[in-house]
């Protein structure tokens, strides 16, 4: 992930196609040892895929098709009732957490 972040920083800084040496310089600037194999793997995976904006747009389309289950979809389906249920569940969680602190013989602010 740090290699991709370095690549993105370089492109945002105006370097259209960062080289392995550029990425290595950014990584080592923060005191981390750079792994040449990971840098070359990143560059080879991005090679021939178009611009960075196109790659990000294609990824965003893939994420749009992923279902997001859980409380978010329940809230969308049943509106305020689900929101109220989520708040009640949150309150129960907080109460249970407080009780577990008491069971240990100390609390956060004792």
UniProtKB/TrEMBL annotation:
Composition bias, Acidic residues: 88-104
InterPro entries found in the cross-reference section: P1/P2_N_sf, Ribosomal_P1/P2, Ribosomal_P1/P2_euk, Ribosomal_P2
GO molecular function: protein kinase activator activity; structural constituent of ribosome
Alphabetic keyword roster: Phosphoprotein, Ribonucleoprotein, Ribosomal protein
GO process terms (BP): cytoplasmic translational elongation
GO cellular component: cytosolic large ribosomal subunit
Region (Disordered): 82-110
Transmembrane intervals: none
HAMAP family: Ribosomal_L12_arch
Quaternary organization: Component of the large ribosomal subunit (LSU). Mature yeast ribosomes consist of a small (40S) and a large (60S) subunit. The 40S small subunit contains 1 molecule of ribosomal RNA (18S rRNA) and 33 different proteins (encoded by 57 genes). The large 60S subunit contains 3 rRNA molecules (25S, 5.8S and 5S rRNA) and 46 different proteins (encoded by 81 genes). The 5 acidic ribosomal P-proteins form the stalk structure of the 60S subunit. They are organized as a pentameric complex in which uL10/P0 interacts with 2 heterodimers, P1A-P2B and P1B-P2A.
Known role: Component of the ribosome, a large ribonucleoprotein complex responsible for the synthesis of proteins in the cell. The small ribosomal subunit (SSU) binds messenger RNAs (mRNAs) and translates the encoded message by selecting cognate aminoacyl-transfer RNA (tRNA) molecules. The large subunit (LSU) contains the ribosomal catalytic site termed the peptidyl transferase center (PTC), which catalyzes the formation of peptide bonds, thereby polymerizing the amino acids delivered by tRNAs into a polypeptide chain.
The family this protein is said to belong to: Belongs to the eukaryotic ribosomal protein P1/P2 family.
Stated name of the protein: 60S acidic ribosomal protein P2
Organism of origin: Huiozyma naganishii (strain ATCC MYA-139 / BCRC 22969 / CBS 8797 / KCTC 17520 / NBRC 10181 / NCYC 3082 / Yp74L-3)
